[in-house]
Amino acid sequence: MAEVDVVLSVPSQQDFDEALSSAIVDQVASRISAQDPTLWGPEAESEASIRLSWTHLPESSRSLVGEISELREQLLGKGLDHIVLCGMGGSSLAPEVICHTAGVALTVLDSSQPDMVRGAIADRLDRTVVVVSSKSGGTIETDSQRRAYEHAFTEAGIDPLERIIVVTDPDSPLDQQATETGYRVFRADPHVGGRYSALTAFGLVPSGLAGADIGALLDGAADAEASLYADDPSNPALQLGVMLGVANAHGVDKLVLSDQTGHGVGDWIEQLVAESTGKLGKGILPVVVPFENAVNFNPSTSDSVLVSIGTDEAPKAQSGYAAALQGSLGAQMLLWEVAVAVAGRAIGIDPFDQPDVESAKKAARELLDGAGSVPSPDYTENGIDVYGSGSSLAESVRALLDQVDLDAGYLAIQVYLDRLAYADFAEVREVAAARLGRPVTFGWGPRFLHSTGQYHKGGTPNGVFLQVTGAPEHDLPIAGRDFTFGSFIDSQAAGDAAVLRDHGRPVLRLHLSDVPAGLETIRGLLE
Ligand SMILES: O=P(O)(O)OC[C@H]1O[C@H](O)[C@H](O)[C@@H](O)[C@@H]1O
Q1: Do you know which SUPFAM superfamilies this protein is assigned to (predicted)?
Q2: Does ligand 1 come within 6 angstroms of the Cβ of 286?
């Protein structure tokens, strides 16, 4: 087997072959390797010119391997063996899958939900090292998580300088603040965007400190480079990217992913695909399913490409577009980055910006600052506050589901709760998909805001949104801020709902005062 293998199935070989030949004539793969910013058209050129350094990270990141391993030894020598990563989206999804694949433990705190933050802090604080990762250095969740840990260490008589390590871009607000405080700072290459940063310090520092073999990860990617950058019909990234582009041109704009390895690479691919392609009213909607025979994968819908990871036989897709992928994680990461860049060119978008993420952040900030008006529920039933039309819960849920376009639409279930405590609730994805016979996505808030959130607002406008929020067991203040974690996550949900509605997307928000009982009620209503 080559470093990474792709087996494709397409409904029309001629369409695919023509598109592949034209990508080869245009030298798309070798020009990506050479970091040519003109590939995505004049409008994308200035962003692309500062975003392409990911193409040769297997070489440029190599010196980090020794540095991180030395630091890990020092920390272990002090009995510090519990690594926590605070970060969102591109700053946490890669280390999560790298560590899972390597079979090493990493605690990922990518939430503003108060019970989750308290739970992370209460876990082995005396042995904990916290990696605070933010490319922009301005993400409020990450800043709040850092404050929470600094406060907890100080309260416990532990010097935060001994325990906090920062990964950020040079001169970001976090870099300035951390340098002033005296934290150890790893500065990453600013010419790599967040979702393409898996093989930079963002992916490598937390994973290496947790014990993953990051040298092998880079080796896997390095070994695949020659095939991924060849202007040749056998190039697996070119094949995958071209297939996604051709499918999109035929209205097949959902990508249903099933990971047979069980390592969770789907969540990382989800951000890469959704944020890179979902804009200007176009894009590819990733739908991550939990197992191969999950609804949406089997049976699939006629607007879905199916991709099976960890197998060598392309699955049977109703649309005819399918792929099977196998290879080391490092090779797969580079393969997907190249494939998404290729598909983005075919679809006609800039794969390196995320123009609609900021709007939800702004709406949340306005609510926190008291500048926006806090919405009131339309009615309350059985302890569930309902923000949406209808006069009963059953009617409101039915009215929302009735708005899913049965030919092209999807339902996104967005749940702003403790994702560890209520992990089982993700099973409602299956329930809703079986009822609708349409693609259904499931995301934990605020995590998904940094992943599929861009697509929901900027991508193909055929989504319908069920938002679930809930009262925390106990709220938690944020040191040095005039808002709590609880008010922050509420503002994030309300802010995103407001922006979705402004974009004309149907949204039903259900706020649960008794979370376990409320989730049971929702599960019943979706059946
Ligand atoms: O690493 P940070 O700057 O904190 O950003 C974390 C995330 O923030 C936003 O949601 C961006 O859209 C993501 O692409 C990014 O990964």
Answers
A1: SIS domain (SSF53697)
A2: no
